[in-house]
Design a protein that fits this description.
It contains five helices and two strands, in the order αααααββ. It has about 120 residues and is mainly alpha-helical.
């Protein structure tokens, strides 16, 4: 199971907000660890065995890109590509009505409800 910021804070970190790690709260430190910007070993109050166990889980989620290193713009673009309608002229009659006609050697969409005015 991947470790989220909340999982680290709730189940692993001491919740003392002591600042010994360089961050004002354990929650802020957890966010940096999950985003692969800090090592969990940066918390001086954790047992090394706990750090090692969690580092195995964190390593797997880092490798999988879980919660880290995601290009959100690329994700949004992929989502839009998957859900966008084709704008190919040949697809329009089925989607919005009308029919394809030849207009002086150029394909065109003739819409029965458009009068051109």
């Amino acid at each position: 199971m991947a470790l989220s910021v909340v999982d680290l804070y709730r189940d692993v970190l001491p919740k003392t907000n002591c600042g010994d790690c360089g961050y004002p709260t354990c929650l802020a430190f957890a966010g940096m660890v999950v985003s692969e910007q800090l090592s969990l070993a940066g918390c001086p109050h954790l047992d090394p065995a706990v750090v090692e166990r969690c580092n195995q889980e964190l390593g797997a989620q880092y490798a999988a890109g879980k919660w880290t290193k995601r290009d959100l713009a690329e994700d949004a673009l992929q989502w839009a590509r998957e859900r966008s309608a084709s704008m190919a002229l040949s697809d329009l009659p089925q989607r919005i009505g009308g029919r394809l006609v030849d207009a002086d050697g150029v394909p065109a969409l003739e819409l029965p409800y458009y009068t051109g005015r």
